[in-house]
Amino acid sequence: MSAETKIDVWAHQLAAATPTLDPEQQRIAQDIYKLIATTGRPVTVGQIADSADTSAHRVEKSLRSWPLVLWDEDGRVVGFWGIHAERLEPTHAMEVDGTTVFAWCAWDTLFITEILGRPTQVRSTDPHTGNKVELVVAPDGVTNLEPKGAVVSLLLPEDGLTEDAIQRFCHKVHFFTSPESAEAWIDGRPGLFTVTVDEAFELGRATNRLRMGTVFGDSDGGR
FRET pair for 210, CA 20 to 30 Å: which of 10, 17, 97, 111? Predict the structure, then answer.
């Protein structure tokens, strides 16, 4: 199986694990990512509705029906499908136009950047060696990767997105400084495998189009 075919198969598996979004919901999701990334703060239903040019009722109904929408004590969205306004451990930091937000896993930094439509400076840590991995992610690819041989661990979901997905999936998807470091860490952790950073980025692009096709000009609106 070619690399391109594998990425397509994996993208369909990842997209199938997430809720199906109609075109308006796709815009709502995109605007949540953008609001959190640009403000670096939790966002209200009203802010989301204004940004997406829809009703607060529509936003609230969608958010309450989706898994893994994280709310703070003031009823604001603090975390949403891979992006978080507050620091997390392990830390995958994304700097967007001078504002720092955080991703739930390494792969999130790659697919979210394309949704934002602007470059991000990503800083992460190899969980095996403790050494830093840094890169610049643009909507069309990855540059300034240090170290050059860094890779990403991945795990494909066996079922739909559930409330424990952060523990089951996100905490296993990391940047590593080298394939050797990754292999040492994933040894004994079933289901994990490694890909290059460029392959992980392309997987994000493919998954984005299946989940949020309207945002990227797909007339079919995704899946």
Answer: 97
